[in-house]
Amino acid sequence: MKIIVSENQFGKIMRSEGKPSDVLIEQVVAANPGNQLTILQQKINAIINDPKKEKAILDNINIKLNLTKGNAFELQIGQKKFPMKQTSQGVYGIVLPPGQSITTSEIPISSFMGEIEKLPEYKALIETNPKIQAQLQGMKIYNQLYSDRMGQGYFELRLHSELKDRKEERLAVDVRRPYPLGEFFEQNKVVYKFPPELKGIYGVLSMNMVVADLSSINLTPAAPKVQQ
Fold this sequence. Notes:
228 residues; alpha+beta; 2 domains; six-stranded mixed beta sheet; four-stranded antiparallel beta sheet; 9 helices; elongated; disordered C terminus
């Protein structure tokens, strides 16, 4: 026999038990072994996409400005390189079209295994299904950049013979050195100092309407055994 109740009624029943409805819903779902994998996947993705950890994760990815042949500029983010187009005198840019994402780096799931292994759902599942552990260990997460929903994203480089702000001049980074992507997103710019052979100019790299995100994982259940 099935008892059908509305979502409203179900919430009232859950609250009458003295527990938050989301906790009790999770308990009901967890009682079904077929759904334990879904709960584990959701909890792992919550670990990966925790905003508090985002900067630390992105700081393991570098952003770098390269000078190519013909004195052209190239922006390197992680393993990907993007030629910058000159838009006006001393100004170069890269546009990220709306709806288009760019994958820049791979992050091994091993970076998160310390926290994943503490999850009770993980401990329970690998006891009955060791293949889940092997499946996770071979996974990679991808850093993606895309335009904000409000508009078209872009990176911009502006060259200066000198800087008006002396503080920025003192904090300028050698253009030949990589810079942590998380710090770049937090500051929304980095000031580069070029070596004397490049006339000692400065470059201010900034961005607008660009979002960084990490991909989620998708766990698959083990294939059922075929009876002989």
